[in-house]
């Protein structure tokens, strides 16, 4: 469902993107080319700051927002998802937040008030809160990363983790094409 926010902003979805009919996009949301947005995802850019301003939520080209993902932002702050990035099932990305290019965010993970640079992998059920992850960092499943985390204790993304991330992005790009072909069939 594509709908306006109370201020009247309407999502902008590139014609080459696929948004599942059960997903909800509300307000100042920009979806770029060849993006897959899965069933029951919710992307809401509807909160304003004290001056009535809202920054957009931008989903970069060739990225995928999988089933049940929630992307929202406090007080109209910006959320940016880079290109070729995968946000896996039921993850939460709550702004302000910047997620780089070629990133993988695992099932049920939570990102809040953070920056996750290019090629990072955040595995399942992890929390990244209030910090900046440099490029290529690997966050293990169930880890909690915050302002006081010693980032030197985090490993770099392995070749196999990088290949997995690329495969997920590629698979979801194929889904965009497949679902676009059958989107008007019943």
Automatic annotation (TrEMBL):
Pfam families membership: Hexapep
InterPro entries according to UniProt: CA_gamma_LbH, Gamma-CA, Hexapep, Trimer_LpxA-like_sf
CDD domains recorded: LbH_gamma_CA
The family this protein is said to belong to: Belongs to the gamma-class carbonic anhydrase family.
PANTHER family: CARBON DIOXIDE CONCENTRATING MECHANISM PROTEIN CCMM (PTHR43360), CARBOXYSOME ASSEMBLY PROTEIN CCMM (PTHR43360:SF1)
Name of the protein in its database record: Carbonate dehydratase
Organism: Marinobacter xestospongiae
